[in-house]
Structures
1.
Amino acid sequence: MATVKILYNDTADRLERYLKNHLEQNKSEGKSVQQTEHLVFLDGMTQDFFQVQSDFNTRGNNALHLIQSWSPQESKQLKPEDIHAMGIEMANQFAPGHQYVVQTHTDQAHHHNHIVINPVHLETGKRIQNKLENVRTLREVNDSIAKERGLSVLPPQESLKRPGPNEKARRIENYRGKSYIVDLAQKADFARGLATNYDEYVALLSGFNITARIENQNITYFYPGREVGKRGRNLTPELDKPALEKKFAHNRERLGLDTPRALEPLVSRRSEGLTQPRTEILEQSVIPIEEIQNAKTQSIRNYCQKEKIRMTRNEKGQTVLLNREHVEIGEYSWINHRNKTQGTLIDFVANHRKTSLLHAVSIINANPKLMMLFQ
């Protein structure tokens, strides 16, 4: 599957250093690298680009960076010289009359071309502008090159639109595997299914090392290892403030938290072979909240595999318990579709081990000292 993207904010000097370093590293390892220089040499590319742009007195980005990639499956089938030839064809069709350098990298599972283009035409001085139509043109050229060689391409953009994380993240996941945006949305969706207020919501997210900043009008999520946050409305409407507050109210109503009730014992009730979600009781106890949140955010599926609890997939593709197909098993939560109860790994372990919620937390966290709190 061939994909291509264009980066307007790369600089020629950074790209020149990067491509030179790649050449030197491969040379030291005795490996050859496919490279083509058109109307410019890599050594001195930055200065040449700058000179052309100065001659025409034009300002803007001093380099365009195209990355043309293939899926790991097709990368294994293609020769480096074939991949390189497609990069040259891409540069010639997208930017005829422009200086460029094409370098092919095969050191990753998805082989790819780095195509560095001077955005200013050598003769006319016309600049390639940062416009959406150029992205469309680039995609059309790339698809045409791939199809001519019998290679697959991404489906039309319209078919990839769906509720949930934005389309770009879905496209990344479809092509390369797990996207951090999709992972962020899935974990936030798990947290919203259990939280009854923002404090609980933020605490649950912290169990995944995700930070949430609550503002007057917005909520911003920060994924571990990422400095730039994602607004909730850019992930999915359900993760923005209005929808979250409605979900919190629904969760409070479902749990009966809007009416006074006595503190119940730390023992789970059972129905249809699974516990009803009672972990909110733990949060009223002396157990450290960090222990509870850590236990809540452990994988139920991993526990089932470890304990040899058999699972299967139903006709909808959902993971369910074998012989109890009404119990759907998610990564971090379960739901009993027969009696409409749901919960986390804490409830699940309490039922499986026929023990209290407190003991379940101590089992999950491998912390037997917790039981001393109630001895």
Note: The radius of gyration is 27 Å.
2.
Amino acid sequence: MTLGRVAWPALAVLALALGGAAGLRAPRVPDAPYPETRRDSVVETLFGERIADPYRWLENDVRGDPEVADWVRRENAYTEGYLATLPAREWFASHIRELTDYERFGLPRKAGRRYFYLHNRGLQNQSVLEVRDGLDGTARLLLDPNTWQADGTAALDPELWEPSPDGRLLAYGVQQSGSDWRVIHVLDVKRAKVLADELRWVNQSSIAWTDRHGFLYSRFPAPRPGEEFHALNLNHALWYHRVGTAQAADSLVYATPAHPEWNHTARVTSDHRFAVITTSLGTDARHEIHVIDLAAGRRRNWEVRPLVQGFTHDWTLVDSIGSVLWFVTNWQAPRCRLMTIDLAEPLPQWHEVVREGPEVLQQASIIGDELILTYLHHAATRAFVVDLHGGPLRALSLNEIGTAAGFHGKP
């Protein structure tokens, strides 16, 4: 973290507050001179106005520009020198360590007979990925990102990992030095061996296995050399990767070259019949939806069928049963409702299963022949169970007031 001159008065006030909380006096700002920052002579004329930009050189990549790297080093050294003098710092650090030092587990994902999950013993910088063969199986370590790089700058993306349907393979995304880019690798689960597959320029992606042989993922075109970390990212596209082949052999599944600013991600239904593509424009929860029938997908050159067009509402896939797709949407329902559409019908129509209620419907899951609905009530989670027709409603006790996530399963 770096702090400029204007931050010091606020920092001093914060230090006084923290010092008072611990019964200690806050130190004064150090007398050492603030690191100098070179001013350049860059001037541009925009719309007839001359605009000076003396610090543009700081936009250069810190990885390749020694002057920028030196500036960051001096700024950090000055900031850390001050923070180290705060008398309450270690008091807060020890209490935070106490509060976070407990064992925790992520939600398991079942594939074949195996269960995959994240596990943290307490104070590990990153959770490790473990697997069990069956519910009563012994936990076995698959990935420990804490050992990937000595300085700890390589990370497992906790949202970007997915086992193959039979549990034999695991695809996962690696992040380097806080970059938005991900590199997807594939692991042989039985041998805990990383295979040769390496998918680059992945960003804003999911991993959606279509079968045990390959998966869908999203990436941008490779940037030009030297622009990897500051070029504008355009022409996001959905690709299919077959395990054991080079990335250059991947198949393009869906792209919108006429709209290079659109982004596309995919999910595959639990029966692996449909791939549902969600297209977004910016960060608004307004999407277009397209569908691929995977039973005929590659034979028909990935035939993509539009389902929802126009960025007007949010549509979140729940799952499918047979030819029926289920979605949570805020279309004509600001607090969201549950809708279905049967793709086997000659003219598919939307049907309401659970109408909009007084609270926001956050998620729906199909588990067996029931639905679990989660709502937000006064910033706390409320969960209910209904049948596949939307009733009767019964509450699922969560014992405490708080937030809950998960409720995943399969029809």
Note: The radius of gyration is 26 Å.
3.
Amino acid sequence: MRIRLLREEIAHHLATLRRRSTLTALQTARLSAILDTLADDGRFLLRAALDAAEFPEDDTRGQEAFQDFRKKVNRAAAEAGVDLQLELDSRKVPPDQRYGWFTGGDLVDEGITSFTEEAAWRTGIDHPVASEVAELRPLRVYVSYHCTDKVTAQKVRMLLPQLREALALDREQAWKVADSGSVGLGEDAEAERDRLCAQAHVRLALVSPAYLADTAPERHRTLDSPERPVAFALSRLPEGSLNLGRLRPHDIRRRREPWDELRSVGQRRGYIADVVDEIRRALQPLRTTAEGRVPEDPLTEYFASQARRKRAGDSAVLIEGELT
């Protein structure tokens, strides 16, 4: 059955296609750029794809070049035996109103979980993850950033898929990544972010000047959390005194090499690898509890830690009662 694919499924098929086909470096780079523009529903706006993948700026020439590119990618996928097709809205409308998407086979129907032989080849791991990994209770990561700023949101949309992909390659642990933008239409945004942040086993702050200057609850939700978050520079930060909540300047990694100043694929992979390493390091105490298993209810533990937290005016000696 052919379905519209979501980001992680497309990434899996593209990894297979890169291995099996004769795509050029430019075609591969354009596919990666288009993937970065994908929305949560699996569609991308043609205008965004044309800009991100650097097709000709003229609308007519750009759309013609995209159609030619689409045909070549689909032909390469068919010849390589990869069930992936790049689709485009057939309506003759401007690129600002025209959408594209990828279709393919359901990975579950193919007997594939979150890790495949192709992914193993791509990362140098000799064997795929055991099937039991798909059944593990996932470790939750909450990614906090200045979500109301469109420029920041665009940067994060390029970073998050790579982080999710890197964590999905874990051979021993399932992961679930939520972020400040993981709020459905009609939901109470702040309440939902509170819930996602409280559920998380680790919180990742992507720090920018706008994030630190924001007076909305988001930065306080993460930087003032009882558990110190993992913090990385999304953009270059100013010198001097910064309002970092419970953090200190040296707690923010990559201050000299922020995400938005990295240009090569290798540099960005290195950044993501550092993020994953820090997330794992932050979780090491958690993994030692309950005979190496994560707590069953991180939300309960979060509020328990809040109750134990010393506040202004508390006695110097804290006598804890039992939490029910």
Note: The CA atoms of residues 308 and 314 lie 11 Å apart.
4.
Amino acid sequence: MVYEAWIGVVNMSVTAGLVIVCVLLARLALKRAPKVFSYVLWAAVLFRLLCPVSVGAGFSLLGLTGTPVREAAGYTTRVEYVQPAPLPAAGTGTQAPAGQGGQTAAAPSGEAEGIQPSVSARLSAGEIAARVWLAGVLAMAGWGVGSYLRVRRRVVGAVRLEGNLYLADHIPTPFVMGVFRPRIYLPAGLGPEEREYVVRHERCHIRALDPAFRLLAFAALCIHWFNPLVWLAFFLSGKDMEMRCDEAVVRQLGEGSRADYSACLLALAAGRRMLAGAPLAFGEGDTRGRIQNLARWRRPRRWAALLAAVVCIAVVGACAANPGGEESPPAEETLSAQPPAETQSPEGGGEDSPGVQALADSLAGVETGETPLSLTLTQDGEELGPYEQSWTASNSVYYWNQLLHITWRA
């Protein structure tokens, strides 16, 4: 179970890595645009990190890289760069590949001794990697929960000012905490002007549902902790989020407020350690970069904002979709693996039954290609059910991996 989940995560992580590179390039092109557009681009990355399937489209970015896709369910497909290694057969020997006649038989003892070590070594490496990945996920999640609980203890005695505003004595910087009912915590000693800037900034986070987005981003980081591009995306998306809120506050108060707002940001960030577990803190992120961004900020022209929005939508759509969009024509030939009635097994199966051998004989001469292949499994004129349920446990994984390149239809 863990091994299959690990393979799925690897496929998603590779896909997300390609999308992250594309977002970084688009982010450079939108460098002078409002940061709201750069921030929206990260939605495609988050989708790829958390969702294993997507719809097919002719304008997919992954279509340029020859990304292998597989039908999932309905109109969705999934990317498969890596497939699970075939498991050894149940019993004493390793399941031998189909021979010239397509039959599957246990290899002789001499061959089994030669094959078994390589298969076992490959599977052991995969299983070890899966367990290391799971340990990393649990460690990251444990650190996040522990940090959150430490922050909760520091605001136990917070005093409510109004609405969702709370005043606390033992916090170094303002921050938002909570997803469903987010609260804004302010440190004691803030002046009236500083409080206005901070409250506007944090309420911008709440209106944009940033607490929920940040929680999902951290969950994706826990799952894909082994991918350095995901760490880069996590930190850059946080910077874009903070800069977007900075620009929103200055747009509300007027461009004349940039100097005072920058001074407030610098005063609250200088010499103060950030709170781990409080992801939406006013002074978090690259303070110097945020101040420089405010110094360059100008209210964009309408045509420039419209062009940036079109680019943003096109990039997100192309990164979120899988290659496809046009159904391949059905194969003219339907392979029927029904054995003669007099040779069928009354029980309907078994790895040495005539039905399985007849199916293996029929598949042995099939040449693979781009044309989808329909497979019909019947016994005594009745369907046996989905393909993966028509094999015994000892040989199903081997044949499934051998036939993954074929598009199966129910």
Note: Confidence is low (pLDDT under 50) at residues 89-122, 325-351, 368-372, 387-395.
